[in-house]
Amino acid sequence: MAVGDAPNHTYTIFKVSCKSTATDANFQEDKSDYTEFQEMQDGSVSVHGRMNVAMKNGDKVDYSFEGSFPTDTTKPFSQKWKLESGTGRYKSIGGSGTCFGMVHTDGTGDMECIGTYSMGR
Fold it and tell me: What is the pTM of this model?
């Protein structure tokens, strides 16, 4: 949606589902649904949102994220994430980290995330 205050200043909301994988055997992600808010202006895109992850055991984990990326798809993006809450085994989870990736010209993308988490008590 065009903001109207300057050329090429827009807001966009995305609702996306994707497959999640984790290398930690104690943190088996399965499917992710995320909502992302984007603001595009002056060749850069700022994002923030929430990601809700279904774990393979049926529990859920919720993340928040924020970051930015260039509109030039030949350049990488980065964002920060934070574990906000969970259910079942993950009820007391907390953690944070960063993600890096590329957006492709067809709108798809690849992303790798690193960070730490703790299961609380």
Answer: 0.82
